[in-house]
Design the sequence.
């Protein structure tokens, strides 16, 4: 008999493969904070920069996602770049211009921009 | 922070007792000896919830967890893992708690690493608008598990065993509440999530819902299964449009996935959730007023008993819990009540979320194990007081809570310790107050809020808070009279004892606790007509000092033309005309204006 537990495990496997099919295994994953507080600090503009970069093909090997608020109120908007085999890079106080630089310098050229990193 | 390795060492009590501090020293020494100091950074974390296998060391990237690390193991870890990139297999432990996913991304940061994220475990790491993201992190598995393997009574038993207490503020044992509603016989029962977060400065619930809405729904469905309810309602304030949007999306997704709605996951358990929007009245956070509001009436509290668990929404047994309480439920089911109750203190289990605000470097949303001291929160996570100022007080619990003086900074955060110290846990507001703040003014701020939000049903709260506010106002305006403090104390105690609901019963707390701990400041205001912190407008005057360059900026901005002086000459403020708005003080570029 198929139990609810079996059903949910199957659903999880399907969810995981759907996420992977959306390029989750790309070299870099980029998360942009999109809670009320982050948006108030201007994260929707930041998100748009990354979306445009993906849409226009400036970024190919990147998985882009929004996320809720992790809790860095005074440093928002925040952006994380997660790359397998490397420590996650967390950026704070990112605006439109900085986001463009992250696209060019970090995501396209692999340069971690240390001045904007938050602990 | 561009090091190759970040090594997190647990700095929780148990790990320290097992020798964690020695490990830190030896590791530092080893890193130096192998010229790795630039390539590896040591990060100290708060309790990682793996106490039985302590001391714990986590090496990133890769999130390798080493357990029971002894001093003699450290050179091997450095040689093998850091220099050759190979794990030391015999020390690796597999721990897969739900909160580990958060630490994989945030664990090497000193702000997040010191925390323990149980209820906020997915906030900041998943896309809250994608059900797949939640499902991938074992979402709805707890619900499936209870439906498959557990009887409703067993679920209640687990929650009781976990020691979880209500996170809305009062700290009533959650399991007992569940048991009371479960044992009622009724054709209909309800489950309610109280998301009517109203404390000024509090945003715990909003962040939780905006970051991970499915967790709340899953917790509620488990509650429904446990007490035999098929209907859940989230009462959320209309001021939270994004949270409402994400919950609405989540409910739709969950229904499509078959984890909400009729015959969940093919079982005979059905459970629906719908939203009810509150119009923003503070009193509607009180459970009986909230229920009244859902029923379509005016949000007024009523005397208890009967408690909602016996007679709640539409007179039916109703299980009502706060957002954060619900978010803990899936973890208790999947990681176990025993694990959950291993975290925290004797009487308060698990973690608590706080909205850390005020004069602290890192303001933010934090979640720490119960028993963490205020000092750790303010200095280790919060990064200390802004501008190197001195800590004066800590306000917890918002308008229902109290102010603890700086001498209480080593108080552990749990329900009993905070109450004993003269404040309350509350729903999680924590405001750090520095030496530049006036305690009378702070008390007045909170009372202004509660007297305005009093629903007016009972006289002690409606009239009493109003009178207290009037007395506080005249004290801050320089018209305080001898005997005012005693009057405030007497009134406060009466309101506490005679009010109908929690709003009134707790409204005097900010005043009474500041009188208790900062009585001298009240006396100064009343007798010497002085505000030590120079905050209360009625008790200060502005003066222009010799530093004045005569630029005229203050003269231009003064709304009542109280400032006179010719260009490039010293200006003067006419204190008769001055309304003490402080605009000149803020405008002056030469710090030439003083408050006296």
Sequence:
């Amino acid at each position: 008999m198929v139990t609810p537990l079996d059903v949910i495990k199957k659903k999880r496997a399907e969810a995981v493969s759907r996420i992977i099919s959306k390029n989750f295994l790309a070299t870099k994953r980029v998360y942009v904070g999109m809670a009320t507080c982050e948006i108030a600090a201007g994260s929707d503009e930041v998100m748009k920069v990354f979306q445009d970069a993906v849409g226009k093909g400036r970024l190919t090997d990147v998985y882009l996602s929004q996320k809720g608020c992790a809790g860095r109120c005074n440093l928002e908007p925040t952006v994380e770049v997660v790359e397998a085999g490397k420590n996650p890079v967390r950026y704070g106080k990112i605006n439109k211009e900085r986001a463009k630089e992250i696209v060019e310098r970090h995501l396209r050229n692999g340069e971690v921009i240390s001045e904007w990193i938050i602990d | 922070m561009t090091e190759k390795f970040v090594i997190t060492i647990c700095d929780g009590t148990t790990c320290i007792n097992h020798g964690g501090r020695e490990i830190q020293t030896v590791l530092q020494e080893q890193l130096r000896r192998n010229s790795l100091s630039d390539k590896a950074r040591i990060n100290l974390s708060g309790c990682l919830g793996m106490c039985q296998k302590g001391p714990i060391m986590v090496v990133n990237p890769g999130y390798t967890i080493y357990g029971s690390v002894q001093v003699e193991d450290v050179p091997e870890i450095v040689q093998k893992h850091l220099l050759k990139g190979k794990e030391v297999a015999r020390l690796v432990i597999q721990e897969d708690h739900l909160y580990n996913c958060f630490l994989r991304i945030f664990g090497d940061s000193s702000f997040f690493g010191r925390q323990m994220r149980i209820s906020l475990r997915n906030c900041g790491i998943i896309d809250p608008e994608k059900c797949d993201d939640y499902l991938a992190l074992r979402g709805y598995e707890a619900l499936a598990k209870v439906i498959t393997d557990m009887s409703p009574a067993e679920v209640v038993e687990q929650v009781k065993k976990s020691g979880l207490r209500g996170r809305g503020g009062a700290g009533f044992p959650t399991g007992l509440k569940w048991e009371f509603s479960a044992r009622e016989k009724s054709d209909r029962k309800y489950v309610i999530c109280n998301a009517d977060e109203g404390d000024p400065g509090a945003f715990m619930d909003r962040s939780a819902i905006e970051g991970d809405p499915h967790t709340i729904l899953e917790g509620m469905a488990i509650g429904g299964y446990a007490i035999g309810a098929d209907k859940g309602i989230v009462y959320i304030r209309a001021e939270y449009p994004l949270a409402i949007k994400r919950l609405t999306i989540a409910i739709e997704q969950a229904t499509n996935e078959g984890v909400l709605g009729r015959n969940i996951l093919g079982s005979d358990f059905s459970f629906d959730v719908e939203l009810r929007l509150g119009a923003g009245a503070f009193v509607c956070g009180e459970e009986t007023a909230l229920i009244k509001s859902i029923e379509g009436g005016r949000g007024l509290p009523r005397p208890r008993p009967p408690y909602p668990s016996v007679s709640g929404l539409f007179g039916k047994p109703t299980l009502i819990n706060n957002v954060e309480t619900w978010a803990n439920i899936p973890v208790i089911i999947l990681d176990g009540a025993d694990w959950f109750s291993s975290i925290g203190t004797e009487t308060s289990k698990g973690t608590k979320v706080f909205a850390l605000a005020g004069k602290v470097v890192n303001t933010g949303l934090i979640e720490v194990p119960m028993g963490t001291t205020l000092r750790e929160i303010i200095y280790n996570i919060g990064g200390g007081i802004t501008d190197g100022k001195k800590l004066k007080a800590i306000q917890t619990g918002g308008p229902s809570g109290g102010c603890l003086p700086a001498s209480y900074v080593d108080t552990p955060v749990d329900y009993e310790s905070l109450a004993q110290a003269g404040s309350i846990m509350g729903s999680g507001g924590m405001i750090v107050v520095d030496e530049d703040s006036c305690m009378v003014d702070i008390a007045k701020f909170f009372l202004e809020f509660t007297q305005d939000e009093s629903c007016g049903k009972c006289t002690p709260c409606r009239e009493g808070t109003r009178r207290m506010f009037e007395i506080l106002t005249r004290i801050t305006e320089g018209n305080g009279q001898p005997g005012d403090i005693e009057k405030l104390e007497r009134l406060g105690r009466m309101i506490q004892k005679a009010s109908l609901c929690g709003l009134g019963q707790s409204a005097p707390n900010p005043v009474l606790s500041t009188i208790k701990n900062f009585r001298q400041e009240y006396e100064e205001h009343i007798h010497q007509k002085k505000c030590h912190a120079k905050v209360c407008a009625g008790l200060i005057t502005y003066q222009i000092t010799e530093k004045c360059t005569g630029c005229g900026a203050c003269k231009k901005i003064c709304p009542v033309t109280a400032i006179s002086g010719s260009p490039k000459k010293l200006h003067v403020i006419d204190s008769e005309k001055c309304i003490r708005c402080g605009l000149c003080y803020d405008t002056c570029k030469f710090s030439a204006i003083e408050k006296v």
Residues 4-21 of chain A form the longest helix (18 residues). DSSP finds four helices and four strands in chain A. Helices of chain A lie at 4-21, 36-40, 43-55, 96-108. The longest strand of chain A covers residues 28-33.
